[in-house]
Model the fold of this input.
Amino acid sequence: MSPCSIQTLQPSPQHQQQRQYVVGYALTSKKVKSFLQPKLEGLARNNGISFVPIDHNRPLSDQGPFDVVLHKMTGREWRQILEEYRQIHPKVLVLDPPDAIKRLQNRQSMLQCVADMNLSEFCGKVGVPRQLVIQRDASSIPDFVAKAGLRLPLVAKPLVNDGSAKSHELSIAYDRFSLQKLEPPLVLQEFVNHGGVLFKVFIVGEAIKVVRRFSLPNVTKRDLLSNAGVYRFPRVSCAAASADDADLDPSVAGMMFYHVTVFEGTQFIESFLLGTYSKDYPKNFVKDWIWENAWV
Ligand SMILES: Nc1ncnc2c1ncn2[C@@H]1O[C@H](COP(=O)(O)OP(=O)(O)OP(=O)(O)O)[C@@H](O)[C@H]1O
Ligand SMILES: O=P(O)(O)O[C@H]1[C@H](O)[C@@H](O)[C@H](OP(=O)(O)O)[C@@H](OP(=O)(O)O)[C@H]1O
Done:
């Protein structure tokens, strides 16, 4: 070993004092691949945070000690293990405790809080698409849809949102007959034209990041006349569909400003101005646009 490398092994005084945190994680292999990337682990290590896999073959309380438990698992048995663990270890921060995220694992209940906010008066721009839950029996879907008066085309999403690849799949049914080809349990929503772009908002504590993604394009009257059947989309608006650098129609690029200001206030705007804003707009214009249009 060279003197140089010996030197680098000496922890700095600052390093010696750094509090160490252990994060026990229970993640699917899909999530480990996408989330626990070497860059994140390196960054965490430099900040005194280490990630340790939870062994499902051993009692959770025998493992650790953990400062944080990070999980993205579902199922009754796992829920029970976690709840018991929380009772015995109240000081351990369990991220996403099962009871708290229950409503997000069902696409019907997840939107209920938006509906409850009753924001339809905000120029009618904040709302939930008209939707219907189908629990079983695909052959009855056309009748249910007719009774509910839902307008085609319809977007079909799996009712359960458990983080599996399957739960992110989405279908569009253009005609009444093809509705029978869908697989319940699912949520059927009226298609809402939104300019083919989606804004994803990531919030961790004080940190906010907004990204733009290409989404499903608007459905025109012509599409309705010429399209039939069910179209399946495994992953709409995934990271590969980034529209951050795209020159978007200003009316679409500006849409976000209204929504974010209604919900999050100035902090959000600042983040938006610093981060993802339309290249077509000078910053001051964007700021003025927000002040003039958002709090009317
Ligand atoms: N009713 C709808 N009308 C038109 N487009 C829709 C509708 N619902 C969803 N989309 C589009 O489909 C995509 C995925 O919708 P989904 O409801 O699965 O979102 P999500 O669960 O928040 O996505 P993610 O799986 O990335 O977390 C988005 O791009 C969205 O714009
Ligand atoms: O690629 P972005 O835009 O970040 O979309 C994410 C979704 O918003 C998350 O819901 C996915 O996580 P889950 O599959 O655990 O729900 C997440 O799944 P992943 O962590 O397996 O990639 C992503 O698909």
